User: Which sequence fits this backbone?
């Protein structure tokens, strides 16, 4: 193919993708966006932020504070924390101290246990299908972590989820930024896929 034909083909393709207003152009744009995000943006963010999952959607309500002001939430839930050595002054300095909601997007960074402190929110693997996102409430003598969902009464220890002894190899990353409600796009998409497969 000569230069003239190549240039003409590139111009035609450019016009089809960026300027044409057709359903086929729209479908190609969606596919290109998916490929770009899945294979370039997401892995690039993962490399930059040192985690395999740089962006996650919150799919449970275990960290919700149920629209309460922080002082009201603390008054209702402080017993467990106080009994486990975490007082109000400490909790107020924790990242994401007001919790977060189902449907929020969390940006994660790093996964080294030595860089994770009590009060940080982490994402980790369990025997459940989806990773878990909870707050670190203790460090064990061996350097492992214990977490608890702010909206849960206690740390969970059962066959599907043991959050009382999380080793570093189970840690996916530490939450560093919350983007409210944007995760409902993913949750809705997954629910549609699951309904189609049922």
Assistant:
């Amino acid at each position: 193919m000569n230069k003239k034909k190549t240039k003409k083909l590139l111009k035609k393709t450019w016009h089809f993708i960026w300027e044409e207003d057709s359903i086929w152009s729209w479908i190609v744009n969606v596919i290109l966006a998916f490929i770009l995000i899945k294979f370039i943006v997401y892995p690039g963010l993962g490399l930059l932020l040192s985690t395999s999952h740089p962006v996650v959607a919150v799919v449970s309500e275990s960290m919700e504070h149920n629209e309460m002001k922080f002082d009201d939430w603390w008054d209702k839930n402080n017993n467990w924390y106080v009994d486990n050595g975490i007082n109000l002054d400490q909790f107020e300095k924790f990242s994401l101290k007001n919790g977060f909601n189902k449907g929020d997007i969390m940006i994660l960074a790093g996964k080294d246990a030595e860089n994770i402190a009590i009060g940080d929110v982490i994402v980790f693997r369990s025997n459940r299908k989806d990773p878990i996102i909870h707050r670190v409430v203790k460090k064990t003598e061996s350097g492992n972590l214990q977490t608890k969902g702010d909206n849960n009464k206690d740390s969970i220890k059962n066959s599907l989820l043991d959050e009382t002894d999380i080793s570093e190899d189970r840690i996916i990353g530490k939450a560093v930024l919350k983007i409210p409600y944007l995760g409902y796009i993913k949750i809705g998409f997954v629910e549609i896929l699951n309904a189609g497969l049922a």
Strands lie at 55-57, 105-109, 121-124, 132-139, 145-148, 171-179. The chain has five helices and six strands. The radius of gyration is 22 Å. Residues 3-47 form one domain.
